[in-house]
């Protein structure tokens, strides 16, 4: 009952912020409401299947955007992908070093705090590694910073066509159910080897493959499914503030803001250099090199008339690399223990 009340309050606050015109108001409002509830009442909502639902829905929503993705497009952006991977290494190293040496955080918290993965992957890592609650503060700062920054730099009415869909016929319904079942099956396999947020990764790749094979061409996720995913992940993140005092929030938030600022500045520098060398749009490159927040960036890029395929391909590669890296670390630990 408490969990249901928390969800209703989070949805209400998020809806108010959404109608007030705040970017990602539903997500940010649910984080704010659930964080206040968790910190004041010392209560964490029980959502056993919440994270899996979030991963599947956001993964399919992202995969559906890859309608014009082809081999020629990928080959043309290989040099830029190389710049992005180098940028990620520099971002994580510099920001992690700042938190470790200057802020005095331990090595595990420093590395997890600058992990530039999707929110679902970050949340999964925090759960599996039993990281300090200060880690989620840094990633909340990252989400807020990127959301507000890209919304300010690229003004426009955020209105991605998610709700307008053709009627769901039997063929489309069966394809969608098969896709979800396959995402769950392959996701479980990836989960067994330590890949964080595996259902989101499989949903993106398999949905993009369906689009290329001619399936789900006219299908769009209904708006309520994406909105409910935003509320769920907001509540899951906000519940992490149960054991965080206001003083800790201010202290960790300040350190996180400096670390995120370093990562965004490094992304801008790499985008400027790559733009000159490759003759590409520096703004698109900057969005492509940003450390995470693929959902925010996808919506803003779409509404701003930018090259969504170019930007999202970079983030897809980033997610594949970063989601498999923890699995390799886990396997290396097992081999070393044996």
UniProtKB/TrEMBL annotation:
Pfam families: AbrB (PF05145). Keywords: Membrane, Transmembrane, Transmembrane helix. InterPro entries: AbrB_dup (IPR017516), AbrB_fam (IPR007820). It comes from the Bacteria. The chain crosses the membrane at residues 51-69, 81-100, 140-158, 170-191, 253-274, 286-312. PANTHER family: REGULATOR ABRB-RELATED (PTHR38457:SF1). This is AbrB family transcriptional regulator. It comes from Pseudomonas mandelii.
């Amino acid at each position: 009952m408490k969990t249901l009340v928390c969800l209703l309050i989070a949805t209400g606050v998020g809806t108010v912020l959404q109608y007030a015109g705040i970017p990602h108001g539903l997500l940010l409002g649910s984080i704010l409401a659930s964080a206040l509830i968790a910190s004041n009442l010392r209560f964490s909502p029980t959502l056993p299947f919440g994270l899996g639902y979030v991963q599947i829905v956001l993964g399919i929503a992202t995969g559906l955007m890859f309608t014009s993705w082809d081999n020629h497009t990928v080959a043309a952006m290989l040099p830029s992908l190389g710049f992005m991977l180098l940028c990620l290494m520099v971002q994580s190293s510099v920001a992690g070093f700042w938190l470790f040496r200057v802020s005095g955080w331990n090595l595990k918290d420093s590395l997890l705090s600058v992990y530039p993965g999707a929110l679902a992957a970050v949340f999964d890592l925090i759960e599996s590694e039993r990281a300090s609650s200060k880690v989620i503060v840094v990633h909340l700062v990252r989400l807020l910073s990127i959301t507000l920054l890209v919304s300010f730099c690229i003004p426009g009415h955020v209105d991605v066509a998610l709700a307008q869909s053709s009627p769901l016929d039997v063929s489309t319904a069966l394809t969608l159910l098969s896709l979800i079942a396959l995402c769950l099956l392959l996701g479980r396999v990836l989960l067994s080897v330590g890949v964080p947020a595996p259902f989101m990764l499989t949903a993106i790749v398999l949905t993009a493959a369906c689009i290329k094979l001619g399936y789900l061409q006219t299908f769009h996720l209904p708006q309520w499914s994406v909105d409910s995913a935003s509320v769920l992940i907001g509540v899951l993140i906000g519940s992490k503030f149960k054991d965080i005092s206001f003083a800790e929030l201010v202290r960790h938030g300040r350190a996180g803001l400096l670390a995120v600022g370093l990562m965004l500045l490094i992304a801008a520098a790499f985008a400027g250099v790559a733009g000159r060398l490759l003759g590409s749009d520096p703004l698109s490159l900057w969005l492509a090199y940003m450390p995470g927040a693929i959902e925010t960036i996808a919506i803003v890029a779409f509404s701003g008339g930018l090259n969504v395929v170019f930007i999202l391909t970079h983030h897809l590669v980033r997610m594949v690399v970063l989601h498999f890296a923890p699995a390799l670390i886990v396997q290396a630990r097992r081999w070393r223990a044996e």
